[in-house]
Amino acid sequence: MSEEKKFEVNNGHNQDEYDASQIQILEGLEAVRKRPGMYIGSTSITGLHHMVYEIVDNGVDEALAGFCDSITVTINEDNSITVEDDGRGIPVDIQKKAGKPAVEVVFTILHAGGKFGNGGYKVSGGLHGVGASVVNALSEWLEVRVYKNGHIYQQRYERGKVMCPLTVIGDCEEDRHGTTVCFKPDKEIFEETVFDYKTIKTRLRETAFLTKGLKIRLIDKREMPHDRTFHYEGGIKEFVSYLNRANAALYPSIIYCEGERQGIYVEVAMQHTDAFTENIYSFVNNINTPEGGTHLTGFRNALTKTFNDYARNNKLLKDSDQNLSGEDIREGLTAIISVKIGDPQFEGQTKMKLGTSEANTAVNQVVSEQLTYFLEQNPQVAKIMCEKSILAQRARAAARKARELTRRKSVLEGAGLPGKLADCSEKDPEKCEIFIVEGDSALGPAKNCRDSKFQAVLPLRGKVLNVEKARLDKIYANKEIQGMITAFGTGIHDDFDITKLRYNKIIIMTDADVDGAHISTLMLTFLYRFMPELIKQGHVYLAQPPLYYIRKNKKLYYAYNDAERDNLLAQVGKDADVQRFKGLGEMEDQELSETTMDPETRTLLRVNMDDDALSELDLTFTTLMGDQVEPRREFIEENAKYVRNLDV
After folding, report:
1. Which of 43, 254, 574, 611 has its CA 20 to 30 A from that of 185?
2. 613 Ramachandran zone, left/alpha/beta (phi>0; psi -120 to 50)
3. pLDDT tens, 346-365?
4. How many CA atoms lie within 13 A of 188 on its CB side?
5. Which of 104, 186, 358, 511 is catalytic?
6. From residue 82, how far is each of 52, 90, 221 by CA, in Å?
């Protein structure tokens, strides 16, 4: 090929050139439809639900400003969403700069709204003025109704474009006010357009806890109707009680701190339980900050210093005793830190970490002052907290010795890999995967049918330790957990380093029955509590072995649950030979390979975490794996209908 024809021509221009003709100008909301992930995170089910939150948050901002008492969210039969609030109603008069009604500006122009400067809102979760307009751009259609000035105003949009001018469609009572938004997500944009009731319920419940007195109603009109109302006059104090319902509280009162410093409103609620993990959640203007930030730092510093000072002054700690660490004091603590800031500064685009330095000082001062007062007024509670912290301190020292012993063993034994680990030969972690299997009976078939180049197998003996009921020293001393820690290579807890991960995929492969599901849950509890980053970054999977095989006319079919078995029998005939696999150890090598281990033919379920629902996730693990029977029974009764069929 000649040098002149080296590059292909596109629209008459050499692709090696870069000139003004290649600069695109996207009009209106086209940019949102072109790159939706930039505005709502993704076009997956997570992004779909984010659409609901954007509209709900507008009503919440009205509530934070003192103008809204109730919000109703309805999932309609066609999977459209209706959000109705009784706030002031979006302004309908002409916005002078745009020359259009303000409501039209809000829904059609990015970065337009009442949340900039010192205008409509003192504090707000929506900082960038893109919420309503982005939802409009990514919806097949959207209708907004505004109740204001004794009139009902309405406007309709389709894929972000105005379909008609703002019109008065009727009259209403003079004192009626608010906004109703109804929209249907665009199936051209989203991978999934069916809303999950439980996901929305979790978010709305949390929002109601964080907005004291606000009433939020959720209605689902689809095949399985629901109607729930969330209303908490106690606010975050009730949030702590809700999160602690699956654990035994060490004292009846919830410690509550509230105040304003430097224009920052601070609310903190906390209570210790008999658990061994801490569950602390921080929020800014009702936005969850899973990576914490300055407000969380202020809380931790205040808690540690205030409690140590009190313990010293009141002889709960002897002069010879060392200070209690923050970790010691926070063991078993459930706490909510909520701050309201007029102009919060976040680190990064995701709003996951607060960077406002004044929040550190504000939270520190409010908690220090009011916690000191609480401890002085409640010496018995202070004593219980101190006893719990001292036990935690001793357990942490024992855990440190166990961890150091494990490290010394690893050095003495060379690579230090578990004896029963059947490792792979590939050295690039990105290409490697490890199967965690139940015992030696499953180890044999798994070793026989794996590809030893990139697939490793580690057997566990018996059921894994339930870490929800164990302190760190017992966890480090457990041989099965030691084996996993060593095999994965990352360490756990404070020592965790994901760059040392030896396998890109960690695959939990248990029998397709109730015992197998229990072992999987124990494994997931351990990973969630001590290696959560493995789950966050998508390294944890559940294998899907079949429960039955069906043979008819020399053809073999596999069924993964009772429903699939019945469907297959309906297709091939009831006279087919049906056998239930009693476990992985009873499967032929070829069967195990093609159904469960071969990347070309297997099905894996990746385990995900939703940062928007961490408090509910914590509660789920505590409920299922903790000591309290009643919350677990309630959970099973409520969620049994969602569980896949398992042979019991």
Report:
1. 611
2. alpha
3. 886 556 889 999 999 999 99
4. 10
5. 511
6. 9, 16, 11
Specify the length of the chain in residues: 648
pLDDT greater than 50 at residue 24: no
φ, ψ for residue 49 (rounded to 5)?
Answer: -70, -30
Is there a contact between 452 and 462 (Cβ–Cβ < 8 Å)?
Answer: no
86 is catalytic: no
Is 515 in the active site? yes
**pTM higher than 0.70 for the full model?**
yes
Q: Which of 196, 227, 413, 515 is catalytic?
A: 515
Q: Is the model's pLDDT at 311 over the cut of 60?
A: yes
Facing residues of 197 across strands?
none
Among residues 597, 585, 591, the alpha carbon closest in space to that of 550 is found at: 591
- Is 494 among the catalytic positions? no
Torsion over CA of 307, 309, 313 and 319, rounded to 10 degrees?
A: 100
- Say which of 86, 438, 468, 480 is annotated catalytic: 438
- Specify which residues 95 forms β-bridges with: 100
Comparison of pLDDT for 84 and 321, the residue scoring more: 84
Six-digit token string for 431: 């290409």
What does the DSSP assignment read for 150-201?
TEEEEEEEETTEE-S--EEEEE--TT--EEEEEEEE-TTT-S--PPPHHHHH
Six-digit token string for 36: 């939706």
Active-site choice (513, 562, 598, 627): 513
